[in-house]
TrEMBL record:
Organism: Streptomyces decoyicus
Entry keyword set: Amino-acid transport, Cell membrane, Membrane, Transmembrane, Transmembrane helix, Transport
Family membership: Belongs to the binding-protein-dependent transport system permease family.
Start and end residues of each ABC transmembrane type-1 domain: 8-196
Gene field: ehuD
Database matches in Pfam families: BPD_transp_1
Taxonomic superkingdom: Bacteria
Membrane topology: Multi-pass membrane protein
CDD domains to which the protein is assigned, alphabetical: TM_PBP2 (cd06261)
Transmembrane segments: 12-33, 54-74, 178-199
Major localization listed first in the record, in broad terms: membrane
Protein name: Ectoine/hydroxyectoine ABC transporter permease subunit EhuD
Amino acid sequence: MPDILKGLWITVQATIYGSLVSFALGLVWAVALRSRSRWVTWPVSIFVEFIRNTPLLVQLFFLFFVLPGWGLAFSPLTTGVIGLGLHYSTYTSEVYRAGIDGVPPGQWEAATALSLPRRRTWTAVILPQAFRRVVPALGNYVIAMFKDTPLLAGITVADMLFQANSISATTFDYLEPITIVGILFVVISYPTSLLLRALERRLVR
């Protein structure tokens, strides 16, 4: 049990840091895809679609087993965070896009009438309103990422599943360790989803 709890902490770390990476990169992709330059939108669009349409496990294996051959080697946990962040950034970018598109056109027009610089328009007018709309959806992806962390065991990250498998390989008892891992996922994921629903109801008022 202590080993599984240690794995839980690693799982939570991977989820938190992966979420931060996905939030930051997702916003970059969303803004880049609204660029007026095809030299920006085309490469970003191709990259986003490629990542979105390939399995996360394949991406993790590429980062962990292929990149070291090119001189880019990271620890298993760092590789897992990068993989989770990159993969989910392609989904959070769509969330940001929907939030930005949901800002009333009058807000853009008002910013133009006030002669606000484009950067100021984004940071002071558009993004604050968009963020308010997308928080619940971003939270849902955090939960989804949390439930995908067992894939990190495939690149030797000592998360909950990795620890459970190690215990099972020693004791030849798979029922108890795997069941505990499943229960821990439910105990964390379900209350979090309830909190997100309450937050969504509060934000849409």
